[in-house]
Amino acid sequence: RDGLFSKNDIICEIGQVIAGRNPGRLSETEITVFDATGLAAQDILTARELLGKAARLGFGTSAAL
């Protein structure tokens, strides 16, 4: 085991659930684990989207760095 779960515990990847190819959880007792470590590009794109939405909605304070 590497951490909490082994590769045998993986039913599918989150992208398959999002794409509708796998139903994901089948009951309230099942859990979903999403490990996004090592995805810096995804972090940057997510931050850009959230900053844009905050600006459009007038939330937050902008500061020059």
Q: What can be said about this structure in brief?
A:
With 65 residues, the protein is an all-alpha fold.
* Oligomeric description of these chains: single chain
- Class from helix and strand fractions: mainly alpha
Give the overall pLDDT as a whole number.
Answer: 86
Low-pLDDT sequence parts: none
Estimate the global geometry from the Cα principal axes: elongated
Describe how the helices and strands are arranged.
Elements lengths: L13 H5 L21 H18 L8
Q: Can you describe this structure?
A:
This protein is mainly α. Helices cover 35% and strands 0% of the residues. The chain is built from 2 helices and no strands. The protein has helices at 14-18, 40-57. The longest helix has 18 residues, at 40-57. The model has no long low-confidence stretch (mean pLDDT 86).
Keywords:
single chain; mainly alpha; 2 helices
